[in-house]
Write a structure and sequence with these properties.
The structure holds 2 protein chains of 2 kinds. Chain A is mainly β. Helix content of chain A is about 5%, strand content about 25%. Chain A has helices spanning about 35-40, 50-55, 205-210, and strands at about 45, 85-95, 105-110, 135-140, 145-150, 155-160, 165, 170-175, 185-190, 215, 230, 235. Chain B is globular. Chain B is mainly beta. In chain B, helix 2 links the parallel strand 6 and strand 7. Classes of the chains: A mainly beta, B mainly beta. Chains A and B meet through helix 1, strand 1, helix 2, strand 3 and strand 8 of A and helix 1, strand 5, strand 6 and strand 9 of B. Strand 1 of chain A pairs parallel with strand 9 (about 200-205) of chain B, so a sheet runs across the interface. The complex binds fe (ii) ion.
């Protein structure tokens, strides 16, 4: 078990803040063609969180292998490493109240430096890197901080429009304390001109929301002669602190 | 001018894409040797309390085709109706049951199978018991933000009839979209993304 919440304070059990559905992409986004047949068309049923969404499983640091957070070497033969620009990605997991969230399971996956995924349904002509698998994971520390090492993925073409390319990106799955906080998103790289051309990026309407998914190059955190650093903070739904506190248990 | 609330915005969602398996079920995707097992693959063990059940799920698109690249996670209470979670304040859940499962849908059939136990009832926010249910979360290529829904059990008619969440569904004709029918020890739950039988999804 990792430490959840501050010491000497019971774990939080309040309902989550409602999601801002104008900040997230809508389900139906015809520019991203696959969404057309995969988007619910009826209104979502809005409800306050119940205990089924407020609760969630715990992921302990002891489940992590030593190389889980190092995609440069976690699939490589001994003594070898993945090809590509070496980077670290670091940041904090916060909630909407600005509070660091500890014990968050962060799982990442990405293409190799040539833009090729290691997947049986992937057929892009860029070659596989025999030393790159493309998956990594870590768990945030007591202040919500996390870090992993990887190579910068390449952009790749994909079947949507006749000439659509994904900007370089890393997929993130973020598992906070409640099942209602469950989130999957993508991280983009500062300065990439492909970001603003991408139909998947453009499912998000607000340019500021897109910037929230764009990691900043941080030369202060860069390891000289080794790897550059990108900072990527992640924000999960906040939770109300009063839901159970204001009423007696069992009411 | 009033004071600022200083709230942050939730990170916006992006689709899980077609290669979600690489990150979340790498062994299923034939990326061996990185993690010993795929997380959430085994929900029950010899010591888990409760009635063993099998749940078969599919996610079906607006053309009637099952998704072969979806990923489903479920979260549920134990047999006594307690969640194995720090936020569970009503008592200690079965230590041999995490309550959480994750499956990729099969790349040929589109089906995924959870071996689990039937959950007990847990209270709604006003204390009334909810009917036994699984909380279900679906991601896939073409789904821009993960979909939350629930699976209820077809052989729990009395509990389902008084469930406070099902009662909130205005069009009663849509309630059966959340109820899995039982055949032997197996429940079958088809999630319809669109159409006349579109599943009820939650903003919860
Ligand atoms: Fe991707």
């Amino acid at each position: 078990m990792s430490n959840i919440g501050a010491p000497n304070r019971p774990p939080e059990a309040g309902a989550f803040f409602q999601r801002d559905r104008d900040w997230h992409p809508p389900a139906f986004t015809p520019g991203y063609k696959t969404s057309v047949l995969r988007s619910p068309r009826r209104a979502l049923l809005s409800l306050n969180s119940t205990i089924s969404e407020i609760t969630g499983p715990v992921f302990g640091h002891d489940m992590l292998g030593e190389l889980d957070d190092d995609m440069i070497v976690n699939f490589a033969k001994p003594g070898e490493s993945a090809i590509g620009p070496r980077i670290m990605v670091y940041g904090r997991v916060l909630d909407e109240r600005g509070i660091g969230v500890p014990g968050v399971l962060i799982e990442v996956w990405q293409a190799n430096a040539g833009g090729r995924y290691r997947h049986k349904k992937e057929s892009y002509l860029a070659p596989l890197d025999p030393n790159f698998g493309g998956c990594g994971r870590t768990i945030s520390g007591d202040d919500g901080s996390y870090c992993f090492r990887t190579i910068q993925p390449g952009p790749y073409p994909w079947p949507n429009g006749p000439n659509d390319w994904r900007p370089a990106h890393i997929h993130f799955s973020v598992f906070g304390h409640g099942f209602g906080q469950r989130l999957i998103t993508q991280m983009y790289f500062e300065g990439d001109p492909m970001i603003w051309k991408c139909p998947i990026v453009k499912t998000i309407n607000d340019p500021q929301a897109i910037e929230q998914l764009t990691a900043a190059l941080d030369m202060q955190a860069t390891l000289p002669m080794d790897m550059r650093a990108y900072k990527f903070d992640i924000v999960l739904r906040g939770r109300r602190s009063t839901m159970f506190e204001n009423r007696r248990e069992g009411n | 001018m009033a004071q600022k609330l200083d709230r942050l915005k939730e990170s916006p969602s992006q689709t899980a894409g077609p290669y979600v398996h690489i990150g979340l079920t790498p062994n299923f995707a034939d990326i061996g040797g990185v993690y010993p097992d795929d997380l959430g693959a085994a929900m029950v063990g010899d010591k888990t309390k409760g009635e063993r059940i099998t749940v078969k799920m599919r996610v079906i698109d607006g053309a009637g085709t099952p998704l072969k690249d979806a990923l489903i996670e479920i979260w549920q209470a134990d047999a006594a109706g307690l969640y194995n979670s720090p936020a569970e304040r009503r008592g200690a859940a079965d230590p041999h049951f995490t309550g959480w499962g994750r499956r990729a849908t099969d790349m040929v059939s589109g089906e995924c199978v959870f071996e689990t136990i039937k959950p007990g009832r847990v209270p709604f926010n006003d204390g009334r018991p909810m009917a036994p249910h699984l909380t279900v979360w679906i991601v896939a290529r073409g789904i821009n933000i993960g979909l939350h829904t629930r699976m209820y059990f077809g052989d729990e008619e009395a509990a389902n009839a008084e469930d406070p969440v099902l009662a909130r569904i205005e069009h009663k004709v849509r309630v059966p979209t959340l109820i899995a029918q039982r055949s032997g020890d197996t429940y079958v739950f088809d999630i319809q993304l669109q159409g006349d039988d579109e599943t009820v999804f939650f903003d919860i």
